[in-house]
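Lecture 7 notes: from sequence to structure.
We start with the chain below.
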Amino acid sequence: MIGLHESTRRKIDAQTLHRTLFDTLRIPQDAGIHVGVSGGVDSVVLLHLLAAVQNCSEISLAALHAHHGLHPDADRWQEFCERLCETWSVAFATRRLDVRVETGYGYEASAREARYQWYASMVKPTDYLLLAHHRDDQAETVLLNLLRGSGVRGMSSMSPMAIRERLRIIRPLLTYDRQQLVAYAEEHQLQWIEDASNRDIAYSRNYLRHRIVPLLRARWPAVSRVLADTAERMQRTQTLLEEVAAADLRHTEWRSIEALAGTGYKLKLSGLEDLSESRFRNLLSYWLRGRHFRSPSCRQMDQLVAELIRRGGPTNAINRWPGTEMRRYDGWLYVLRPLSQPVAMDARRWDIEQPLHLPELNLKMVAVPVIGAGLARKHITTPLVVRWRQGGERCRLANHAGRRKLKKLLQEHRVPPWARARIPLVYVVHQLAAVAGYWYCAPFAAGPGEAGIEFKLCALSDQAPAAHL
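Predicted C-alpha cells for the same chain:
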C-alpha cells in the first residue's frame, strides 16, 4: 500500500508517478492503462502525467470519458477532453450513458454504477484503470460514510489499489491534496473545466466540501491527512475481517443454483450455527460481495439475521434490497437476482428443432439428441406442448409402479417452493411426458439403446447449460 504521508515529502511529477506504477506497484512496463477523464483539474493532471510516462515507457494509454448526458455543458466537456487527448497523443473513447436511478440509490450512485459498468466493458482483465481521486476526496468520503452510519468497510473509503468485480483500479493521487494538484496544473499551464454544479451545496459531498470541511480545517488544519490516515487503518482492519470470513467460509458449502430456482447461489447454513452473530454477519457480507451481490443495509442485515436465519423463518420469507433477493429453504440460504412476479403463462407448442424461449422465466430450453436417455424419439410425432403446473398433475417414474402426484415428487426432491411454479411441463398428446429439470414419465422415457431427446435448460442471459431434463 502506498504510504499516505509520502506526499508531504515529494513533489508531483512524471518521474515519481513512473516509480509508483512500475517499482512500488510493479505494473508491467507494457501494461494497458486506461484513465478516467472528466475534464476537471484532478483528471487533467493525471492525464498529463500519464502522457509523459507514456513517452518514456511501453505502456498502452487510453482515456475514457463518460458522457452522462444530463448537464447542459456535457457535450462541451466531451469535446474538451477529446481535444486534450489529441494534443497529448492519447487514445480517446467516450460513451453517452443511460443513467437510470435505482430504488434506494440516488442519481450520483446510479451514475457511478453506470460509469463503472462502461469502464468494465472497455478495460480488459489484464489492464488497469487509473482514477484521479485525491486526499481531499478521501477525507470527504470518510466523513460521508461516517454520517451514513457505515461500518469498517465504508470507513475504509478508497484504496490505492482495488478490484471492483473484474476491474483492476489504481488511484495514484490519493497521497496528494487538491491544492497540490492545482499548483501542478498552474505550473504546467494546463487548462481544465470548472463544473458549476460542484458548488451546489444541495449535494451532500459539496455541502461537506464547502461548509463543513473548512470549519474543521480552521480548528484542525491537518483534518484531511488525519481522515486519510483513518481510511488507511480501516483498510487494514477490513483486510483482517476478510481473512477471518474466508477462514469461516471454508467450513461450510456453497454452490450455484439451478436455473429453475433463479440466477444466483446458495450457502449451507449447517456448520455456521456456532459462529457468533458478528462473525456470521461478517461472513455473509464477504460471501455476497464475492458473488457480486450488494450487501444489505445494517437494518436489512438485522432483519435478515433475526427473521430469516437465526429463528429459522418460514420458507416463503423473502428479504429484498436493490438487485438482490434472499430466501431460506431446507437448510440453505439462497441469494438471487430478483425473480419476476409469477404470471399466468399460456401453453406453448414447440418444434424441438428450435430453442424454446421463455422470457417470463429468463429461461431457454434446447433439445439435444441422446441414446438411452431422455424422451423417446419415437413419441415425438407432433410438436410438443409446454405448460405449467395447474395442480393435480401425476407422473409415473421409470421402474416405479403407479403414477404419483407431482406435488409430492417435488416436495420429496426438495425443490424450492418458489421454483415449482416455474417448471415447464412437457406434454405429448395431452399426457404429461416430462417435468423439466427433473423426470421423464413412463411410458415416454427412452429405454436402453433407444434414441432419445434431452432438454437442456439455461438462463437466457447465460450461454452454458444450467440444468438438464
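Points to note: The domain at 251-336 is CATH 1.20.59.20 (Chorismate Mutase Domain, subunit A). Confidence is low (pLDDT under 50) at residues 1-9, 462-469.
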